[in-house]
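Hello forum,

I keep getting stuck at the same step: I have a sequence, I want structure tokens, and every attempt I make locally crashes halfway through. Rather than fight my setup again tonight, could one of you with a working pipeline run this one for me? It's a single chain of 559 residues.
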Amino acid sequence: MFFEAHRARLDRAVQAIDAREYWSPYPESPSPSIYGEDAAKTGEAAFQALLNNRFELDQPGTGDYTGQETSPYGLELGITYPHSDPAALVEAASAALPGWRDAGPQARAGVALEILKRINERSFELAHAVSHTSGQHFVMAFQAGGPHAQDRALEAIAYAYAESTRQPTRATWEKPQRKGDPLRMDKKFTVVPRGIGLVIGCNTFPTWNSYPGLFASLVTGNPVIVKPHPRAILPLAITVSIAREVLAEAGFDKNVVTLAVEAPGELIAGDLATNPAVKIVDFTGSTEYGDWLEANARQAVVYTEKAGLNTVIVDSTDDYKGLLRNLGFSLSLYSGQMCTTPQNILVPRDGIDTDQGRKTPAEFAADLASGVDKLLSDPARAVGTLGALANPGVVDRLAKAHELGEVVLASRAVEVDGLPKATVRTPVIVALDAKDEDTYTTEWFGPISFVISTDSTEHALDIFRRTVSAHGALTASVYSTSENVLSDTELAALEAGVHLSENLTQGVFVNQSAAFSDFHGTGANPAASTALTDPGFVTGRFYVLQSRRHAPVEGAEVG
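Reply #2:
Ran it on my machine without issues. Output:
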């Protein structure tokens, strides 16, 4: 029904992932000239209309309604959602599976692409929903929660469609014989979904991190239960509502996609993840819970994106100001609440060569702190960069970080005009020594980073290799004017199993990745169970089963 309408976009997406080139069909600028003069006003009005109301979904097993979202900017959302019995959702998804399976990859991809089209049309509404649940500033929420998340969804659709149609649906097999006619078989190949998928959403990037698993599972034939973080329900509730609307229009059981919302104090993710009917689990969040899922959801294939010890190795630079500007922004963006934000910055204790002379670790740390302080000196600009802290645990962690060593840059509160309850904090930078491994081998999620003095660059590479291999990381970065050091760091990154960025001084940052080109995450270290942007992310979601029979003998009469 929808496939031909969207086929050109799908073909272009497949081309982009094959070439690893820049491409994005969804403009990231919330400009009226792109989205329409009234788009921003209409989107905000739609968001406001949701506040202090029930969010209806007409799901099975719904008894009461529940909701507990409070914006990090201080706004009480007051939205309640259907509190559905998890067992009823599993039963409904199981009943929806055969029809969705039998539809085939083209029909499923068409539905997924239409869902995505309608999500894009509501990007402004979703931006407000993401901002007031995650704490991202509106512009970042529009980009990361809207077009960038949609890019990731389309990327997953393209991978899922390409991999699930790689095999022919039918083939004739013919084997010559020494005497007589050849052996001939007619063979049929069918993509069979693994089973029900469970997407466990996170607080910080509810759409960007949830869309790949959601759409990869759908296109490969698996119904999906979406379990949002209790502090970030609305963006995924809107997404599920759109999906159910499109499914019904296309003639499918809309319970192919359902929403599982938990009441305060209720913990349903673990029960759903270990349900025998759930065969796929997608999770983004804490290392502790990701490890638990991998250990306990044994009946399912589990895709986790955790975090870890994202590391920067500083050896030398010919653009000291560019280094400080780039790294300082990376530490500040969304208050370090990205799983890709640097934590450990390794600097040789005898200093680094720069275009501004030799810099000791103390001088480097002071210059970095000064750059961050300058970047965030204007409150309005600071809020636009930092956003707000989404989780009370980050606030507590930030306070504890000031006791870990010499504080080079202390965190401070930033007031937001008109939003007196907003929780906005600047980063803290702490100076440590290489011997303080107990501190820097712990993940300190949030706007917390360490400048760590090492014996040498070689020592820094050894620390990098050991700590990332043991504890994981999603990003690594190096600054050096030496090709030998860059080669050694690249080898260390290969051994540690982490993606590497080299000498970033311009408008590309280590904690950002481009859909269709950059690989995000890797199964090569403990921070993730697989790369979330490669074929392996989709191939585990389906099987290919065959049936075969003898082919009719050519020329023989039939019937």
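The chain has two domains: 3-19+57-166+184-306, 311-502. If your local run keeps crashing, start a new thread with the error log.
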